[in-house]
Amino acid sequence: MHQALSDPALDQLFRTARTYNAFTGEVGDETLHQLYELMKFGPTEANTTPARIVFVKSEAAKARLGPALSEGNHKKTMAAPVVAIVGYDMRFYDKLPVLFPHTDAKPWFEHREEANLAWVAMRSASLQTAYLILAARALGLDAGPMSGFDNAKVDEAFFAGTSIRSNVLVNLGVGDPASIFPRSPRLSFDEACRIE
């Protein structure tokens, strides 16, 4: 058995962590490397690891991202130190000979219909987005994930000519406490779970 994390660690990752709408500070490239080095170890289906991430930092990249954002997300996203565009690679199975070497898993996926492949890729990339958020929190950053954007515009601006499709945006930085709303309720164990 591993030892349980301390209460302060659990607070930082879950209990007091929040979704921020405004950020300050800078996020260095080294921190982004550290973030990925943590998140990459989270489990995905058959170790497919389909997430592909563009860390948008420069003004030029933000100018390309801006037209894809919904009105409510534009200002906060343009002001965030970093915006992670988390996409999913529809040809994730090409990496399986390396990522899942103990068996020939590529045929499990390569001939599936596109809708089925998209479901597999999006599900595991969404898990990876959650790992990204937890890794950011573990490194002392705050996160603001969102889906309020035009996927087709993001794909054209950042993934044109590739097999990658956008999934989620995550603003990263040091969260401004004035930008958060009161914590919304959560379902109780009995409302969301059962033990059989």
How does this structure look, described?
Pfam families: Nitroreductase. With about 200 residues, the chain is an alpha+beta fold. Helices cover about 40% and strands about 15% of the residues. The protein has one domain (about 25-150, about 165-175): 3-Layer(aba) Sandwich (NADH Oxidase), CATH 3.40.109. Strands 1, 2, 3, 4 and 5 form a five-stranded antiparallel β-sheet that branches. α2 crosses α7.
| Overall pLDDT confidence | 96
Which percent range fits the helix content? 40-55%
CATH homologous superfamily heading: NADH Oxidase
Q: Which structural class is indicated by helix and strand composition?
A: alpha+beta
What number of structural domains do the residues give?
A: 1
- What does the overall shape look like? globular
Alpha-carbon distance between the two ends: 23 Å
CATH class: Alpha Beta
Keywords:
oxidoreductase activity, NADH Oxidase, alpha+beta, about 200 residues, 5-stranded antiparallel sheet, 5 strands, 9 helices
In short:
The protein is α+β, with helices and mostly antiparallel strands and 196 residues long.
Describe how the helices and strands are arranged.
Elements lengths: L6 H9 L7 E2 L4 H11 L11 E6 L2 H7 L5 H9 L2 E8 L6 H4 L6 H4 L4 H25 L3 E5 L4 H8 L5 E12 L13 H4 L4
Helix pairs in contact: 2-7
